[in-house]
Amino acid sequence: xxxxxxxxxxxxxxxxxxxxxxxxxxxxxxxxxxxxxxxxxxxxxxxxxxxxxxxxxxxxxxxxxxxxxxxxxxxxxxxxxxxxxxxxxxxxxxxxxxxxxxxxxxxxxxxxxxxxxxxxxxxxxxxxxxxxxxxxxxxxxxxxxxxxxxxxxxxxxxxxxxxxxxxxxxxxxxxxx
Length: 177
Description:
With 177 residues, this protein is α+β, with helices and mostly antiparallel strands. Helices cover 37% and strands 19% of the residues. The strands form 2 sheets. Strands 1-4-5-6-7 form a 5-stranded mixed sheet, covered by helices on one side. A two-stranded antiparallel ribbon has the order 2-3.
């Protein structure tokens, strides 16, 4: 009975796979060590419905930050993970507003305002997003504008409207439903 043919590259393939697994494990350990500077883990949304949903009923706002960590000061720091590389010119305004919203939710649910929230991109770039009076006023101004009835000032365009996720419910659409 003949032995099965074993590829001559099997040891090299196994070494390469082992190296990749070791590198990923090391990266995860380094990330956990880096996270500890924000404090102890309170909650993490792993995509399976885990994590802690925060609510601020008076603002009609709720959300689930990707990670919540409690700093030594007692403040809870929200960390938002973005599964794309960082932008050369800084984070988009929408990402900053999302972190501000999480900061407001943390403040409303814990009673302690966080000094900042964190944006973390897939390439490892992290940015602290300051949560202060100016950020609060800007966020609440955006929230107030969203609560007002639509005033009809949108300028519909076929190109934009065709890709818009709200096109079926929009009064200003340029593309028929």
